[in-house]
Amino acid sequence: MTAPIPRALALGLAAGAAVGLAEALGVASHGGLYPSLPAQALLAGAGAATGAALGVAGAGAVRLIGCEHGATAALGGGMAPVLASLGVWWASDPPPFTAPSPLQGAWWALGLFGIALPSLLILGTDHMGRRARWGVVGALGIAAAWTGWSQGGTSLGDPPVSASPLAPNLLLITVDTTRADRLMALGDTPSFDRLAREGVRFDLAISQIPVTGPSHTTILSGVPPWEHGMLLNGTPIPAQLQLLPEGLRQRGYATGAFVSGYVLNGNLGFQRGFQVYDDDFSSLPGMGRILAGRLWEMGRRAQDADHLLQRRGDLTTDRALAWLRDQRGPWFAWVHLFDPHGPYTPPPPWDERYYQGRDPHDPNNRSMEDVRGVAPYMQEALRGITDVDYVRARYDGELAWTDTQVGALLDWLDATGQTEDTMVVLVGDHGEGLGEHGEWFNHGDALWDQDLHVPLAMRLPDALPAGRVIPTPVELTDVAPTIADYLSLDLQRATGISLRIGIDGERLPRRTARSICLDRAANRAARALEPDLPPRWRMASSRGLRERVVVREAEGFADQTEVWRDDPPDEALWEALRADARALLATQAQGETSTSAGDRDLLEALGYVEP
Protein backbone atom coordinates (compact mmCIF):
# COMPACT_ATOMS: atom_id res chain seq x y z
CA MET A 1 0.00 0.00 0.00
CA THR A 2 1.39 3.35 -1.00
CA ALA A 3 1.88 5.77 1.89
CA PRO A 4 1.07 9.47 1.33
CA ILE A 5 4.05 11.74 1.73
CA PRO A 6 2.98 13.27 5.09
CA ARG A 7 2.27 9.81 6.49
CA ALA A 8 5.59 8.48 5.19
CA LEU A 9 7.48 11.35 6.81
CA ALA A 10 5.55 10.84 10.05
CA LEU A 11 6.45 7.15 10.04
CA GLY A 12 10.08 8.02 9.38
CA LEU A 13 10.02 10.54 12.20
CA ALA A 14 8.52 8.02 14.59
CA ALA A 15 11.00 5.28 13.63
CA GLY A 16 13.99 7.60 13.89
CA ALA A 17 12.80 8.92 17.25
CA ALA A 18 12.30 5.36 18.51
CA VAL A 19 15.83 4.38 17.50
CA GLY A 20 17.31 7.52 19.11
CA LEU A 21 15.23 6.99 22.25
CA ALA A 22 16.29 3.34 22.48
CA GLU A 23 19.97 4.32 22.28
CA ALA A 24 19.59 7.02 24.94
CA LEU A 25 17.69 4.74 27.33
CA GLY A 26 20.33 2.07 26.84
CA VAL A 27 23.06 4.54 27.83
CA ALA A 28 21.08 5.84 30.81
CA SER A 29 20.38 2.36 32.15
CA HIS A 30 23.91 0.98 32.02
CA GLY A 31 27.43 1.95 32.92
CA GLY A 32 26.95 3.66 36.27
CA LEU A 33 26.31 7.15 34.93
CA TYR A 34 23.76 7.81 37.69
CA PRO A 35 21.82 10.60 36.00
CA SER A 36 18.90 12.07 37.92
CA LEU A 37 15.39 11.56 36.57
CA PRO A 38 15.37 15.04 34.96
CA ALA A 39 18.77 14.27 33.43
CA GLN A 40 17.47 10.93 32.12
CA ALA A 41 14.51 12.75 30.61
CA LEU A 42 16.81 15.28 28.93
CA LEU A 43 19.04 12.48 27.62
CA ALA A 44 16.02 10.61 26.27
CA GLY A 45 14.65 13.79 24.72
CA ALA A 46 17.95 14.61 23.03
CA GLY A 47 18.20 11.09 21.65
CA ALA A 48 14.62 11.07 20.39
CA ALA A 49 14.83 14.56 18.87
CA THR A 50 18.04 13.80 16.99
CA GLY A 51 16.64 10.48 15.79
CA ALA A 52 13.38 12.17 14.71
CA ALA A 53 15.16 14.82 12.66
CA LEU A 54 17.30 12.21 10.93
CA GLY A 55 14.25 9.97 10.55
CA VAL A 56 12.38 12.60 8.56
CA ALA A 57 15.41 12.98 6.29
CA GLY A 58 15.68 9.20 5.92
CA ALA A 59 12.01 8.78 5.06
CA GLY A 60 12.26 11.59 2.52
CA ALA A 61 15.27 9.87 0.91
CA VAL A 62 13.29 6.63 0.70
CA ARG A 63 10.50 8.39 -1.15
CA LEU A 64 13.01 9.95 -3.53
CA ILE A 65 14.32 6.54 -4.65
CA GLY A 66 10.79 5.37 -5.40
CA CYS A 67 9.84 3.22 -2.41
CA GLU A 68 6.17 3.59 -1.60
CA HIS A 69 5.26 1.43 1.40
CA GLY A 70 4.81 2.97 4.83
CA ALA A 71 6.95 0.32 6.53
CA THR A 72 9.77 1.04 4.08
CA ALA A 73 9.56 4.73 4.89
CA ALA A 74 9.79 3.79 8.57
CA LEU A 75 12.78 1.60 7.77
CA GLY A 76 14.49 4.52 6.05
CA GLY A 77 13.72 6.74 9.04
CA GLY A 78 15.09 4.16 11.48
CA MET A 79 18.19 3.54 9.42
CA ALA A 80 19.10 7.24 9.23
CA PRO A 81 20.39 7.59 12.83
CA VAL A 82 22.13 4.23 12.52
CA LEU A 83 23.91 5.41 9.37
CA ALA A 84 24.76 8.70 11.07
CA SER A 85 26.37 6.76 13.94
CA LEU A 86 28.38 4.75 11.44
CA GLY A 87 29.40 7.99 9.75
CA VAL A 88 30.69 9.42 13.03
CA TRP A 89 32.63 6.20 13.63
CA TRP A 90 33.99 6.31 10.06
CA ALA A 91 35.25 9.88 10.52
CA SER A 92 36.67 9.37 14.02
CA ASP A 93 40.07 8.18 15.13
CA PRO A 94 40.14 4.82 16.89
CA PRO A 95 40.75 4.70 20.65
CA PRO A 96 44.40 5.37 21.57
CA PHE A 97 46.73 2.60 20.45
CA THR A 98 43.91 0.64 18.83
CA ALA A 99 44.60 -0.33 15.24
CA PRO A 100 42.14 1.50 12.97
CA SER A 101 39.71 -0.56 10.95
CA PRO A 102 40.50 -0.54 7.21
CA LEU A 103 36.96 0.80 6.79
CA GLN A 104 37.62 3.98 8.80
CA GLY A 105 38.36 6.93 6.55
CA ALA A 106 38.11 4.83 3.36
CA TRP A 107 35.92 6.53 0.76
CA TRP A 108 34.98 3.24 -0.86
CA ALA A 109 33.65 2.04 2.52
CA LEU A 110 31.59 5.21 2.89
CA GLY A 111 30.06 4.67 -0.54
CA LEU A 112 29.47 0.96 -0.08
CA PHE A 113 28.13 0.89 3.48
CA GLY A 114 26.73 4.40 3.60
CA ILE A 115 24.88 4.48 0.28
CA ALA A 116 24.92 1.31 -1.81
CA LEU A 117 24.02 -1.40 0.72
CA PRO A 118 21.38 0.68 2.56
CA SER A 119 19.76 1.48 -0.78
CA LEU A 120 19.69 -2.18 -1.77
CA LEU A 121 18.26 -3.12 1.64
CA ILE A 122 15.51 -0.52 1.40
CA LEU A 123 14.65 -1.42 -2.20
CA GLY A 124 14.58 -5.10 -1.28
CA THR A 125 12.44 -4.49 1.77
CA ASP A 126 9.92 -2.61 -0.35
CA HIS A 127 9.05 -5.93 -2.03
CA MET A 128 8.74 -7.90 1.25
CA GLY A 129 5.51 -8.72 2.98
CA ARG A 130 4.12 -6.20 5.44
CA ARG A 131 5.09 -8.23 8.54
CA ALA A 132 8.62 -8.77 7.28
CA ARG A 133 9.07 -5.05 6.68
CA TRP A 134 7.93 -4.14 10.17
CA GLY A 135 10.11 -6.93 11.56
CA VAL A 136 13.15 -5.27 10.02
CA VAL A 137 12.09 -1.96 11.56
CA GLY A 138 11.76 -3.61 14.99
CA ALA A 139 15.19 -5.19 14.63
CA LEU A 140 16.65 -1.72 14.15
CA GLY A 141 15.20 -0.56 17.44
CA ILE A 142 16.57 -3.59 19.27
CA ALA A 143 20.01 -3.02 17.70
CA ALA A 144 19.93 0.63 18.75
CA ALA A 145 19.04 -0.27 22.33
CA TRP A 146 21.89 -2.79 22.43
CA THR A 147 24.29 -0.21 21.00
CA GLY A 148 23.26 2.30 23.65
CA TRP A 149 23.56 -0.27 26.43
CA SER A 150 27.08 -1.18 25.34
CA GLN A 151 28.01 2.52 25.03
CA GLY A 152 27.01 3.04 28.64
CA GLY A 153 29.85 0.96 30.05
CA THR A 154 31.24 -2.50 30.55
CA SER A 155 30.07 -4.78 33.32
CA LEU A 156 32.75 -6.87 35.02
CA GLY A 157 30.24 -9.37 36.33
CA ASP A 158 30.27 -10.77 39.82
CA PRO A 159 33.66 -11.00 41.55
CA PRO A 160 34.94 -14.48 42.44
CA VAL A 161 35.02 -13.64 46.17
CA SER A 162 32.54 -11.77 48.32
CA ALA A 163 34.27 -9.15 50.42
CA SER A 164 33.71 -9.27 54.14
CA PRO A 165 31.25 -6.57 55.25
CA LEU A 166 33.89 -5.65 57.87
CA ALA A 167 36.57 -4.94 55.22
CA PRO A 168 37.46 -1.24 55.12
CA ASN A 169 36.40 0.91 52.20
CA LEU A 170 39.07 2.74 50.21
CA LEU A 171 38.88 6.33 48.97
CA LEU A 172 41.86 7.26 46.79
CA ILE A 173 42.05 10.97 45.93
CA THR A 174 44.71 11.96 43.40
CA VAL A 175 45.32 15.67 42.93
CA ASP A 176 46.99 16.65 39.68
CA THR A 177 49.92 19.07 39.36
CA THR A 178 50.08 19.73 43.10
CA ARG A 179 53.27 20.89 44.83
CA ALA A 180 53.65 19.85 48.45
CA ASP A 181 55.49 23.04 49.42
CA ARG A 182 52.79 25.37 48.04
CA LEU A 183 49.99 23.28 49.53
CA MET A 184 51.47 23.17 53.02
CA ALA A 185 52.58 26.82 53.00
CA LEU A 186 49.19 28.08 51.87
CA GLY A 187 47.57 27.79 55.30
CA ASP A 188 44.13 27.53 53.67
CA THR A 189 43.71 23.79 53.08
CA PRO A 190 41.64 22.54 56.03
CA SER A 191 40.73 19.22 54.39
CA PHE A 192 44.32 18.18 53.71
CA ASP A 193 45.28 19.44 57.17
CA ARG A 194 42.49 17.35 58.68
CA LEU A 195 43.69 14.19 56.92
CA ALA A 196 47.24 14.82 58.17
CA ARG A 197 46.00 15.55 61.69
CA GLU A 198 43.79 12.46 61.86
CA GLY A 199 46.19 10.19 60.00
CA VAL A 200 49.77 10.05 58.73
CA ARG A 201 51.53 12.71 56.65
CA PHE A 202 54.58 11.93 54.53
CA ASP A 203 56.69 15.07 54.30
CA LEU A 204 59.02 13.92 51.52
CA ALA A 205 56.87 11.97 49.05
CA ILE A 206 58.60 11.91 45.65
CA SER A 207 56.90 11.26 42.31
CA GLN A 208 58.74 8.91 39.95
CA ILE A 209 57.79 10.92 36.86
CA PRO A 210 56.27 14.41 36.40
CA VAL A 211 53.73 13.18 33.82
CA THR A 212 50.10 12.43 34.70
CA GLY A 213 49.39 9.12 32.95
CA PRO A 214 52.63 7.31 33.81
CA SER A 215 52.58 8.66 37.38
CA HIS A 216 49.02 7.43 37.96
CA THR A 217 50.03 4.05 36.59
CA THR A 218 52.76 3.98 39.24
CA ILE A 219 50.29 5.00 41.96
CA LEU A 220 47.82 2.27 40.95
CA SER A 221 50.41 -0.49 40.49
CA GLY A 222 53.40 0.17 42.75
CA VAL A 223 55.67 -0.20 39.69
CA PRO A 224 57.96 2.68 38.55
CA PRO A 225 58.01 3.97 34.96
CA TRP A 226 61.42 2.49 34.19
CA GLU A 227 59.76 -0.91 34.74
CA HIS A 228 56.27 -0.43 33.32
CA GLY A 229 57.73 1.46 30.35
CA MET A 230 55.40 4.47 30.27
CA LEU A 231 57.21 7.79 29.91
CA LEU A 232 54.59 9.76 27.98
CA ASN A 233 50.90 10.41 28.24
CA GLY A 234 48.86 8.57 25.65
CA THR A 235 50.80 5.36 26.31
CA PRO A 236 48.67 2.30 27.12
CA ILE A 237 49.12 0.48 30.41
CA PRO A 238 50.88 -2.86 29.75
CA ALA A 239 48.36 -5.71 29.80
CA GLN A 240 50.46 -7.79 32.20
CA LEU A 241 50.67 -5.05 34.83
CA GLN A 242 48.43 -5.77 37.82
CA LEU A 243 46.50 -2.74 39.06
CA LEU A 244 45.13 -2.15 42.53
CA PRO A 245 41.47 -1.98 41.38
CA GLU A 246 41.78 -5.37 39.69
CA GLY A 247 42.90 -6.96 42.93
CA LEU A 248 40.18 -5.27 44.96
CA ARG A 249 37.49 -6.24 42.45
CA GLN A 250 38.67 -9.85 42.69
CA ARG A 251 38.27 -9.54 46.46
CA GLY A 252 34.63 -8.51 46.04
CA TYR A 253 34.89 -4.72 46.33
CA ALA A 254 32.57 -2.47 44.35
CA THR A 255 34.89 -0.29 42.25
CA GLY A 256 34.30 3.14 40.69
CA ALA A 257 36.64 5.74 39.20
CA PHE A 258 35.87 9.39 38.45
CA VAL A 259 38.58 11.27 36.57
CA SER A 260 38.84 14.91 35.52
CA GLY A 261 41.39 14.91 32.68
CA TYR A 262 41.31 13.45 29.18
CA VAL A 263 44.84 12.18 29.70
CA LEU A 264 43.41 9.43 31.98
CA ASN A 265 41.08 8.18 29.27
CA GLY A 266 39.85 4.72 30.22
CA ASN A 267 40.71 3.37 26.77
CA LEU A 268 44.38 3.49 27.76
CA GLY A 269 43.78 0.79 30.38
CA PHE A 270 42.99 2.92 33.41
CA GLN A 271 39.47 1.46 33.47
CA ARG A 272 40.76 -2.03 34.26
CA GLY A 273 39.20 -3.41 37.43
CA PHE A 274 36.55 -0.70 37.65
CA GLN A 275 32.86 -1.49 37.32
CA VAL A 276 32.30 2.19 36.62
CA TYR A 277 34.90 4.37 34.92
CA ASP A 278 33.53 7.88 34.50
CA ASP A 279 35.62 9.79 31.96
CA ASP A 280 32.57 11.33 30.26
CA PHE A 281 33.01 15.11 30.64
CA SER A 282 29.66 16.05 29.10
CA SER A 283 27.59 18.41 31.22
CA LEU A 284 24.73 15.90 30.97
CA PRO A 285 25.81 12.38 32.03
CA GLY A 286 25.79 10.09 29.01
CA MET A 287 25.39 12.82 26.41
CA GLY A 288 28.81 12.09 24.97
CA ARG A 289 27.78 8.47 24.38
CA ILE A 290 24.64 9.00 22.31
CA LEU A 291 24.52 10.13 18.70
CA ALA A 292 23.34 13.66 19.54
CA GLY A 293 26.32 14.21 21.82
CA ARG A 294 28.82 12.61 19.46
CA LEU A 295 27.69 14.85 16.61
CA TRP A 296 27.88 17.91 18.89
CA GLU A 297 31.35 17.03 20.14
CA MET A 298 32.61 16.37 16.64
CA GLY A 299 31.48 19.83 15.59
CA ARG A 300 32.88 21.53 18.69
CA ARG A 301 36.28 19.87 18.40
CA ALA A 302 36.48 20.81 14.75
CA GLN A 303 36.34 24.42 15.97
CA ASP A 304 38.24 24.06 19.24
CA ALA A 305 40.75 21.26 19.83
CA ASP A 306 40.72 21.97 23.58
CA HIS A 307 37.00 21.27 23.96
CA LEU A 308 36.18 18.88 26.80
CA LEU A 309 39.74 18.00 27.76
CA GLN A 310 38.97 18.33 31.45
CA ARG A 311 36.15 18.99 33.89
CA ARG A 312 36.02 20.99 37.07
CA GLY A 313 36.52 19.20 40.36
CA ASP A 314 33.05 19.81 41.76
CA LEU A 315 31.47 18.06 38.77
CA THR A 316 33.74 15.05 39.25
CA THR A 317 33.06 14.99 42.98
CA ASP A 318 29.30 15.12 42.36
CA ARG A 319 29.54 12.10 40.03
CA ALA A 320 31.58 10.20 42.61
CA LEU A 321 29.12 10.97 45.41
CA ALA A 322 26.18 9.88 43.24
CA TRP A 323 27.85 6.48 42.81
CA LEU A 324 28.90 6.21 46.45
CA ARG A 325 25.33 6.74 47.67
CA ASP A 326 24.33 3.47 45.98
CA GLN A 327 27.08 1.35 47.55
CA ARG A 328 26.27 -0.94 50.45
CA GLY A 329 29.26 -3.27 50.77
CA PRO A 330 33.02 -2.57 50.82
CA TRP A 331 33.87 -0.17 48.01
CA PHE A 332 36.87 1.42 46.33
CA ALA A 333 36.43 4.89 44.83
CA TRP A 334 39.18 6.72 42.93
CA VAL A 335 38.55 10.46 42.53
CA HIS A 336 40.98 12.40 40.35
CA LEU A 337 40.98 16.23 40.62
CA PHE A 338 42.68 18.07 37.75
CA ASP A 339 42.10 21.74 38.68
CA PRO A 340 45.66 22.79 39.69
CA HIS A 341 46.80 21.91 36.17
CA GLY A 342 47.13 24.94 33.93
CA PRO A 343 45.55 27.13 32.81
CA TYR A 344 44.92 28.29 36.37
CA THR A 345 41.26 29.33 36.46
CA PRO A 346 39.90 28.86 39.99
CA PRO A 347 36.30 29.98 40.53
CA PRO A 348 35.50 32.98 42.73
CA PRO A 349 36.51 33.81 45.41
CA TRP A 350 39.64 31.70 45.03
CA ASP A 351 40.58 33.46 41.77
CA GLU A 352 41.55 36.65 43.64
CA ARG A 353 42.04 35.45 47.22
CA TYR A 354 45.85 35.23 47.24
CA TYR A 355 46.82 38.09 44.96
CA GLN A 356 48.42 40.96 46.90
CA GLY A 357 48.98 43.29 43.96
CA ARG A 358 46.67 45.99 42.66
CA ASP A 359 46.53 45.36 38.92
CA PRO A 360 47.82 42.22 37.16
CA HIS A 361 47.75 44.15 33.84
CA ASP A 362 49.81 47.12 35.07
CA PRO A 363 52.16 48.04 32.17
CA ASN A 364 54.72 49.32 34.67
CA ASN A 365 55.10 45.84 36.16
CA ARG A 366 57.77 44.00 34.16
CA SER A 367 58.01 40.76 36.16
CA MET A 368 56.61 38.64 33.30
CA GLU A 369 59.40 39.63 30.95
CA ASP A 370 61.61 36.75 32.08
CA VAL A 371 58.90 34.13 31.51
CA ARG A 372 59.92 31.63 28.81
CA GLY A 373 58.86 28.22 27.57
CA VAL A 374 55.21 28.48 28.58
CA ALA A 375 53.07 25.54 27.48
CA PRO A 376 50.59 26.29 24.65
CA TYR A 377 47.57 25.66 26.89
CA MET A 378 48.75 28.48 29.21
CA GLN A 379 49.37 31.18 26.63
CA GLU A 380 45.81 32.46 26.22
CA ALA A 381 45.31 32.68 30.00
CA LEU A 382 48.53 34.74 30.31
CA ARG A 383 47.69 37.18 27.55
CA GLY A 384 47.99 40.74 28.90
CA ILE A 385 49.21 39.67 32.35
CA THR A 386 52.27 41.63 33.50
CA ASP A 387 52.56 40.50 37.14
CA VAL A 388 54.02 37.02 37.64
CA ASP A 389 52.76 36.96 41.23
CA TYR A 390 49.20 37.08 39.90
CA VAL A 391 49.75 33.82 38.01
CA ARG A 392 51.28 32.15 41.06
CA ALA A 393 48.37 33.39 43.19
CA ARG A 394 45.92 31.81 40.74
CA TYR A 395 47.75 28.49 41.10
CA ASP A 396 47.41 28.77 44.87
CA GLY A 397 43.72 29.50 44.35
CA GLU A 398 43.38 26.23 42.45
CA LEU A 399 44.97 24.36 45.37
CA ALA A 400 42.56 25.88 47.89
CA TRP A 401 39.57 25.27 45.60
CA THR A 402 40.61 21.63 45.15
CA ASP A 403 40.85 21.27 48.92
CA THR A 404 37.15 22.15 49.17
CA GLN A 405 36.33 19.17 46.96
CA VAL A 406 38.38 16.91 49.20
CA GLY A 407 36.35 18.35 52.05
CA ALA A 408 33.08 17.46 50.30
CA LEU A 409 34.18 13.81 50.15
CA LEU A 410 35.30 13.76 53.79
CA ASP A 411 32.06 15.43 54.90
CA TRP A 412 30.06 12.76 53.08
CA LEU A 413 31.95 10.04 54.94
CA ASP A 414 31.10 11.79 58.21
CA ALA A 415 27.44 12.24 57.30
CA THR A 416 27.01 8.58 56.36
CA GLY A 417 28.91 7.20 59.34
CA GLN A 418 31.66 5.65 57.20
CA THR A 419 34.66 7.65 58.40
CA GLU A 420 35.81 4.95 60.82
CA ASP A 421 35.47 2.25 58.16
CA THR A 422 37.22 3.97 55.26
CA MET A 423 40.90 4.24 54.40
CA VAL A 424 41.48 7.63 52.76
CA VAL A 425 44.63 8.24 50.72
CA LEU A 426 45.36 11.64 49.20
CA VAL A 427 48.36 11.91 46.88
CA GLY A 428 49.67 14.26 44.19
CA ASP A 429 50.85 12.82 40.89
CA HIS A 430 53.54 15.48 40.24
CA GLY A 431 54.29 19.15 40.81
CA GLU A 432 54.60 22.32 38.72
CA GLY A 433 57.33 24.79 37.92
CA LEU A 434 56.42 28.36 38.89
CA GLY A 435 59.62 29.97 37.71
CA GLU A 436 62.25 28.06 39.68
CA HIS A 437 65.26 27.05 37.55
CA GLY A 438 63.62 28.81 34.58
CA GLU A 439 60.69 26.36 34.51
CA TRP A 440 57.62 28.54 33.99
CA PHE A 441 54.11 27.21 34.63
CA ASN A 442 54.99 23.82 33.20
CA HIS A 443 56.08 20.29 34.06
CA GLY A 444 57.03 17.03 32.41
CA ASP A 445 60.63 17.60 31.39
CA ALA A 446 62.51 18.46 34.59
CA LEU A 447 63.24 16.68 37.86
CA TRP A 448 63.59 19.49 40.39
CA ASP A 449 61.81 19.40 43.72
CA GLN A 450 59.02 21.60 42.36
CA ASP A 451 58.31 18.85 39.80
CA LEU A 452 58.48 15.83 42.10
CA HIS A 453 57.76 16.72 45.74
CA VAL A 454 54.04 15.98 46.21
CA PRO A 455 51.57 15.75 49.10
CA LEU A 456 50.77 12.34 50.57
CA ALA A 457 48.53 11.61 53.54
CA MET A 458 46.71 8.47 54.71
CA ARG A 459 43.97 7.98 57.28
CA LEU A 460 42.33 4.84 58.65
CA PRO A 461 41.02 5.34 62.20
CA ASP A 462 42.13 2.71 64.75
CA ALA A 463 44.72 1.38 62.29
CA LEU A 464 46.91 4.39 61.44
CA PRO A 465 48.13 6.62 64.28
CA ALA A 466 46.76 10.15 64.27
CA GLY A 467 49.21 12.99 63.68
CA ARG A 468 52.28 10.93 62.77
CA VAL A 469 54.71 12.60 60.37
CA ILE A 470 57.19 10.57 58.28
CA PRO A 471 60.15 12.82 57.34
CA THR A 472 62.19 10.32 55.30
CA PRO A 473 61.92 10.00 51.49
CA VAL A 474 59.14 7.74 50.18
CA GLU A 475 58.09 7.03 46.60
CA LEU A 476 54.74 6.91 44.88
CA THR A 477 55.62 3.27 44.17
CA ASP A 478 54.91 2.75 47.89
CA VAL A 479 51.28 3.90 47.77
CA ALA A 480 49.68 0.75 46.32
CA PRO A 481 51.76 -1.70 48.42
CA THR A 482 50.87 0.20 51.60
CA ILE A 483 47.16 0.15 50.74
CA ALA A 484 47.40 -3.53 49.84
CA ASP A 485 49.07 -4.29 53.19
CA TYR A 486 46.26 -2.69 55.20
CA LEU A 487 43.57 -4.27 53.01
CA SER A 488 45.25 -7.74 53.02
CA LEU A 489 45.73 -7.75 49.26
CA ASP A 490 48.66 -9.28 47.37
CA LEU A 491 50.24 -7.09 44.68
CA GLN A 492 52.57 -9.58 43.05
CA ARG A 493 54.68 -7.33 40.82
CA ALA A 494 54.91 -4.17 42.92
CA THR A 495 58.41 -2.73 43.25
CA GLY A 496 57.55 -0.28 46.01
CA ILE A 497 57.44 -1.21 49.68
CA SER A 498 54.72 -1.07 52.28
CA LEU A 499 55.23 1.91 54.56
CA ARG A 500 53.47 0.19 57.42
CA ILE A 501 56.56 -0.26 59.56
CA GLY A 502 57.27 3.49 59.38
CA ILE A 503 53.63 4.24 60.13
CA ASP A 504 53.85 1.93 63.16
CA GLY A 505 56.81 3.92 64.47
CA GLU A 506 59.80 1.87 63.30
CA ARG A 507 62.58 3.24 61.09
CA LEU A 508 61.96 2.81 57.38
CA PRO A 509 64.77 1.21 55.34
CA ARG A 510 67.29 3.82 54.25
CA ARG A 511 66.79 4.46 50.55
CA THR A 512 66.78 7.15 47.91
CA ALA A 513 63.77 8.16 45.87
CA ARG A 514 64.38 7.82 42.15
CA SER A 515 62.67 9.57 39.23
CA ILE A 516 62.93 9.71 35.44
CA CYS A 517 61.50 11.65 32.49
CA LEU A 518 62.19 12.49 28.88
CA ASP A 519 64.51 15.46 28.29
CA ARG A 520 62.39 17.77 26.15
CA ALA A 521 65.23 20.20 25.36
CA ALA A 522 67.60 17.46 24.23
CA ASN A 523 64.94 15.70 22.15
CA ARG A 524 63.89 18.97 20.54
CA ALA A 525 67.51 19.69 19.59
CA ALA A 526 67.93 16.19 18.17
CA ARG A 527 64.67 16.44 16.24
CA ALA A 528 65.83 19.69 14.65
CA LEU A 529 68.58 17.67 12.98
CA GLU A 530 66.44 14.60 12.25
CA PRO A 531 62.71 15.49 12.20
CA ASP A 532 61.39 11.90 12.40
CA LEU A 533 63.50 10.94 15.41
CA PRO A 534 61.31 9.57 18.24
CA PRO A 535 61.92 10.76 21.84
CA ARG A 536 65.24 9.28 22.92
CA TRP A 537 67.08 11.36 25.49
CA ARG A 538 66.10 11.10 29.13
CA MET A 539 67.14 12.40 32.52
CA ALA A 540 67.06 10.69 35.90
CA SER A 541 67.36 11.80 39.50
CA SER A 542 68.14 10.31 42.87
CA ARG A 543 66.81 12.07 45.98
CA GLY A 544 68.16 11.69 49.49
CA LEU A 545 66.88 13.33 52.64
CA ARG A 546 68.60 16.68 52.00
CA GLU A 547 70.31 16.28 48.65
CA ARG A 548 69.53 15.45 45.03
CA VAL A 549 71.40 14.57 41.86
CA VAL A 550 69.94 14.96 38.38
CA VAL A 551 71.75 13.28 35.49
CA ARG A 552 71.10 14.01 31.81
CA GLU A 553 72.21 11.47 29.25
CA ALA A 554 72.21 13.60 26.07
CA GLU A 555 75.52 14.74 24.68
CA GLY A 556 76.19 18.39 25.43
CA PHE A 557 73.98 18.46 28.54
CA ALA A 558 75.90 18.41 31.82
CA ASP A 559 74.87 16.85 35.12
CA GLN A 560 72.84 19.10 37.39
CA THR A 561 73.00 19.13 41.16
CA GLU A 562 71.13 20.73 44.02
CA VAL A 563 72.55 21.21 47.53
CA TRP A 564 69.97 21.07 50.30
CA ARG A 565 72.20 21.76 53.30
CA ASP A 566 74.69 24.39 54.33
CA ASP A 567 77.67 22.19 55.11
CA PRO A 568 79.89 20.88 52.27
CA PRO A 569 78.37 17.78 50.64
CA ASP A 570 79.81 14.34 51.24
CA GLU A 571 81.50 13.41 47.94
CA ALA A 572 80.97 9.70 48.53
CA LEU A 573 77.25 10.33 49.03
CA TRP A 574 77.05 12.46 45.92
CA GLU A 575 78.78 9.78 43.86
CA ALA A 576 76.40 7.13 45.20
CA LEU A 577 73.44 9.31 44.19
CA ARG A 578 74.94 9.85 40.73
CA ALA A 579 75.48 6.11 40.29
CA ASP A 580 71.89 5.49 41.36
CA ALA A 581 70.55 7.98 38.81
CA ARG A 582 72.81 6.71 36.03
CA ALA A 583 71.57 3.18 36.67
CA LEU A 584 68.08 4.36 35.72
CA LEU A 585 69.35 5.65 32.40
CA ALA A 586 70.65 2.17 31.63
CA THR A 587 67.10 0.76 31.71
CA GLN A 588 65.28 0.16 28.45
CA ALA A 589 61.95 1.86 29.22
CA GLN A 590 60.79 3.56 26.03
CA GLY A 591 57.89 5.97 25.90
CA GLU A 592 55.47 5.95 22.97
CA THR A 593 52.86 8.38 21.88
CA SER A 594 49.59 7.63 20.16
CA THR A 595 49.59 7.21 16.40
CA SER A 596 46.04 8.58 16.30
CA ALA A 597 46.05 12.08 14.84
CA GLY A 598 43.00 13.12 16.84
CA ASP A 599 44.36 11.76 20.09
CA ARG A 600 47.67 13.45 19.41
CA ASP A 601 45.91 16.80 18.90
CA LEU A 602 44.18 16.46 22.27
CA LEU A 603 47.40 15.56 24.08
CA GLU A 604 49.16 18.45 22.34
CA ALA A 605 46.44 20.80 23.57
CA LEU A 606 47.28 19.70 27.12
CA GLY A 607 50.97 20.36 26.47
CA TYR A 608 52.00 16.72 26.62
CA VAL A 609 53.09 16.24 23.01
CA GLU A 610 55.39 18.50 21.06
CA PRO A 611 53.78 20.08 17.98
Structure description:
The chain has 611 residues and is of the alpha/beta class. It folds into two domains: 148 residues, no CATH class; 389 residues, Alkaline Phosphatase, subunit A. Helices cover 43% and strands 12% of the residues. It has 20 helices and 17 strands. Helix 12 runs parallel beside helix 14. The radius of gyration is 27 Å and the shape is globular. The termini are far apart. The relative contact order is 0.13.
**How many helical stretches?**
20
Order of strands, main sheet, comes to 5-4-6-1-7-11-2-12
* Helicity, as a percent range: 40-55%
Structural class: alpha/beta
> What is the CATH C-level name of the largest domain?
Alpha Beta
Radius of gyration: 27 Å
- Proportion of β residues? 5-15%
User: Which whole number gives the mean pLDDT?
Assistant: 83
Low-confidence stretches: 590-595, 602-611
Named CATH architecture of the largest domain: 3-Layer(aba) Sandwich
Task: Tell me how many strands there are.
Answer: 17
This entry's quaternary arrangement is: single chain
Measure the end-to-end span: 60 Å
CATH superfamily of the largest domain: Alkaline Phosphatase, subunit A
Number of domains: 2
